[in-house]
Structures are given as C-alpha cells and as structure tokens.
From TrEMBL:
Residues 57-98 are annotated as: Disordered. This is 2-oxo-4-hydroxy-4-carboxy-5-ureidoimidazoline decarboxylase. GO terms for biological process: purine nucleobase metabolic process; urate catabolic process. InterPro entries: OHCU_decarboxylase, OHCU_decarboxylase-2, OHCU_decarboxylase_sf. SUPFAM superfamilies: UraD-Like (SSF158694). Residues 7-160 form the Oxo-4-hydroxy-4-carboxy-5-ureidoimidazoline decarboxylase domain. Residues 82-91 have a biased composition (Polar residues). Pfam families: OHCU_decarbox (PF09349). It comes from Cellulosimicrobium cellulans. The keyword Acyltransferase does not apply. Pathway: Purine metabolism; urate degradation; (S)-allantoin from urate: step 3/3. Its EC number is 4.1.1.97.
Length: 165
C-alpha cells in the first residue's frame, strides 16, 4: 500500500494494518493517530517512538504472535506472512542447524519464559545461533530489554516494508 493510502485509512483500518506489524493495541493506536506522515521514514520513526517503552504486558502480547526462530509461521494472516519473509534467510534444510536452533529455542524458553526473538531479516542461521547463545547468558531484565528492542525494530521494519513512498 502506498503511504498516501495508509494516511487515508480510517483509524480502525490503520490500526488493523499496524497490528500486523506488532500486536500492541496502544502502539497501533498511537501510530495511527499520528497520521498523516510525510514520508515512510517519518512513519517508521513514529512507530519506534510509540514503542519506546512498551510495558511488559505489551511485550508479552507482541511476543505471543511470533513463531520460534527456524519455525515457519502458520496461516495466511499478514503477521504470519511477514514472519515467514523475515525468516526466509534461516536455512532449515541443514539438519544440524535446525537441531541447534530447536535446542537453543527450548533452552531460551525454559530460562526466560517466552520465545527467543531477534530481528531475523538479513541474518544467517549462524548469526542467529550466535545471538541466541550469547543472550542465553543474560539476566532476565537484560533479556527483557533485548526482546523489547528487537520487537520495536521488527515493527518499524515491517511498517517500512509494507508502505510504498
């Protein structure tokens, strides 16, 4: 959709578009209410600003919509399609990589109680595994901040990816 089309959506239509980027109602409402945006970059900047900070409940809501790294999101909802695209560079044809991702995901979820989240777009499976291994050593507070930061980046990138100047 073009930026102009996004700017002309009703508030409820804009909210639905934004919820596909990050399933956080307050954030989607804030970004929708900030329209019209002059540029796609302005919209992405507003998305980042509205997400800083997100509450723990908002982070949980957004995390609940993300599949594990290395697993393909199911369904044809917009957020599932975006997730599949973002993870397209993660090579799951390599059994060893798939096993290591699965083991790391399990360890992460046991330690922190939610899925491991990293901005996967543009990263190889090895880079993601390195991040996963490194972040397993974090304390809960640091890791919560990492998850929130990655969610913000993903939301802004998704919005930029769906808007045509």
């Amino acid at each position: 959709m073009t930026l102009d089309e996004f700017n002309r959506l009703s508030p409820s239509e804009a909210r639905e578009v934004l919820l596909a980027c990050a399933h956080v109602t307050r954030w989607a409402d804030a970004v929708a209410d900030g329209r019209p945006y002059a540029t796609v970059e302005d919209a992405a900047d507003a998305a980042l600003a509205a997400a800083d900070p997100w509450t723990d409940d908002e982070v949980d809501s957004a995390l609940a919509r993300h599949p594990r790294i290395g697993e393909r999101a199911q369904g044809d909802a917009a957020d599932a399609s975006m997730s599949r695209s973002e993870q397209s560079g993660v090579d799951t044809s390599d059994d060893e990589v798939t096993r290591r991702l699965a083991d790391g995901n399990r360890a992460y979820e046991e330690r922190f109680g939610h899925v491991f989240l990293v901005r996967a777009a543009g990263r190889s499976a090895e880079e993601i595994l390195e991040q996963l291994t490194e972040r397993l050593g974090n304390d809960a507070e640091t890791e919560r901040a990492n998850a929130a930061r990655n969610l913000r980046e993903i939301a802004a990138l998704r919005l930029k990816g769906m808007l045509i100047p």
